[in-house]
Amino acid sequence: MQILRMKIRPLTQQRRLLLDTIREVGRHLDAKELYRRANEKDERISLATVYRNLRLFRDQGIIEERHLRRGCCCYEMKRSGEHQHLVCLSCGRVIEFKSPLIHKLVTEVQRKNRFLVARVDLCMEGYCHECKEERK
Amino acid sequence: MQILRMKIRPLTQQRRLLLDTIREVGRHLDAKELYRRANEKDERISLATVYRNLRLFRDQGIIEERHLRRGCCCYEMKRSGEHQHLVCLSCGRVIEFKSPLIHKLVTEVQRKNRFLVARVDLCMEGYCHECKEERK
DNA sequence: ATAGGTGCAAATGGTTTGCGAAAAC
DNA sequence: GTTTTCGCAAACCATTTGCACCTAT
After folding, report:
1. B11 touches chain A (CB under 8 A)
2. Which protein residues, judged by their CB atom, are less than 7 Å from any atom of strand C?
3. pTM for the model
4. Which chain A residue is nearest to residue B88, measuring alpha carbons?
């Protein structure tokens, strides 16, 4: 955490609050929910600051941006292990998954398409186990 | 094409124009560009009609919706072969690719996460061959 | 004849920005 | 003390919607 914060200067109260909140929640947040949660702790923070800093954190490589829902972006702390997402169309739940096949796929694409891959955004929509059972 | 059109009733002039334009262009269009192109052929069409019908076509399974860029959706005719996209961060070019690994990945996810996959949205960002060379 | 689609303009929702006040260095 | 950020409100852009009129069936 210390290392990450070094990148963010000046480290204002608002930035500290936002980073803490993102880390604390530990799952995917959109700007509005981050604002809501940060605002609970300190009323003075504004939505504009949330947007400005989400962009800053993203550009600094501290958080990752994902397109899990139509019309808005979600953010999460960048972690070492590459992972992707499943989104349930029924309950909205977001499930993370990993697979060595993703790395294989990247390698294959880079070779076959002579394309240098910088970022993988893979999202599968469908029905989670619980919702699948209910639909029967 | 005949079969597809059966689903769309009433088949108005606007819908015919939009379907023809999407098929004709044959690549990814966002609402604004579809409007621009359709409007060149018939000035009377409105942007609202483009949006309304993109949604209709999507719900009828005639076109596919993709999230290739931040803040807007792209659409393309649904084809039989499942394919995914590479987006060049430098020139903006969109490259399609296929791989049997994608199907393997879906099978794996369905088994390991007990998740029923309905849709795969995979987009890799990076640098295409030409832009990669230029950056050297 | 009638159900439904269309154009227009206004509304909506997520995100960005200009500006004077405030904070970090 | 200087540079940068913050809060606020207004702007922006993609998309949706209410309503009176028009069209495909």
Report:
1. no
2. A 9-13, 30-32, 47-48, 51-52, 54-55, 71-73; B 10, 12, 14-15, 44-46, 48-49, 52-53, 56, 71
3. 0.89
4. A115
Q: Does the structure show a pLDDT above 60 at B128?
A: yes
DSSP string, A84-135: EEEEETTT--EEEE--HHHHHHHHHHHHHS--EEEEEEEEEEEE-HHHHHHT
Place of tokens 């490259």: B95
Segment B46-97, tens digit of pLDDT: 999 999 999 999 999 999 999 888 778 999 999 877 899 999 988 888 999 9
CA angle B102, B67, A86 (to 5 degrees): 50
> In this model, does residue A8 exceed pLDDT 90?
no
**Residue A27 clears pLDDT 50, i.e. is over it:** yes
Which residues does residue A66 pair with via DSSP β-bridges, in sequence order? A74
Give whole-number Cα distances, A18 to A91, B24, B25, B123, in Å: 27, 47, 44, 28
Q: Please give the Cα distance from B69 to B92 (Å, whole number).
A: 9
Q: Token pair of B70, please? A: 């931040």
- Residue B53 and residue A5: Cα distance in Å, rounded? 47
Interface check B51 vs A, CB under 8 A: no
Is A101 close to B99, i.e. CB distance below 8 A? no
Here the tokens at position A38 are: 């940060």
Give me the amino acid identity at A106. Answer: V
> Chain B window 81-120: which residues touch A at a Cβ cutoff of 8 Å?
86, 88-89, 95, 97, 99, 101-102, 104-106, 108-109, 112-120
Nucleotides of C under 7 A from a protein CB: 4-10, 13-18, 23-25
Axis crossing angle, helix B31-41 with helix B47-59, rounded to the nearest 10: 120
